[in-house]
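Go through this pair.

…
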Amino acid sequence: MTTDQAQEGLVKYIKGMAFSAAVALVAACATTPTVSPEVSEAHARVESLAQSPLAGQVANEDLTAARSALAQAEAAQSKHEDAALVSHLAYIARRNADIGLERVHEAEAKQRISKAESDRNAVLMQARTAETQSAKADAQASRESAVQAHAELEDLQQQYKLLAAKQTERGMVLTLGDVLFDTAQATLKPGAATMIERLSTFLNQNAETRIRIEGHTDSVGSEAYNEDLSRRRAQAVADALTDRGITRDRIDVAARGEGFPVVGNETAAGRQQNRRVEIVFSGPEGTFAKG
């Protein structure tokens, strides 16, 4: 073989190899599937759902369905099946992923609300504890003073038999006798502090309870005077409670005057019983009994 023939053969070989490579490249391009935007979007949505920590808890079925539809869409696409079928399967995958993401977002919102409620309750509990401690600071200065305060309360209850809350048709009622006020006056005596402290402590510990403070008098004096005096006495008790942290929206004040005696006014003892302030407690839900 001559040199020219060898060179000619080499040229033909190179051209043949180039042609074969070109044919292979064209064939590869023809068989490589084109990824549709719908499939790409569905894939992104499914991955977004799969990466959520809550997906397995609240959207496991949605994730499974989305993955299945996506796999079918990708398989149909790789086989060059009908574009409408690929688009439909991608839509199903995306829709299931979206539903799952909605469930995840709802669960995340509930978690945030639950945490906020927990934080709020913790703050309220701390505030309630602080108020209770402040209201009882003087009474609890020492064990001896607390015991003395309890003894004074027991003595007052025994003396007038009207200082303990009793169940009535109006609900629980606590009666404060006229020993808390000077005659014809509406200024609380210093001795009233123990009862007011205990009442404010109870209200601080039962945040949903509301009270109605009713002032009552005997029949001495005019009706107008007695109604005004009963109002001022009830208001004095309300002011003492608000000074200790009880909010006004939990307190109603009512002037009953001489219209609701517990006994006759013919004797001094009877008139003394009729001169009183009654504390009517609501139920735990904040409403008063009808009666």
Notes: The chain has two domains: 33-110, 143-281. The CA atoms of residues 151 and 188 lie 20 Å apart. The two ends are 130 Å apart (CA to CA). The chain has a mean pLDDT of 82.
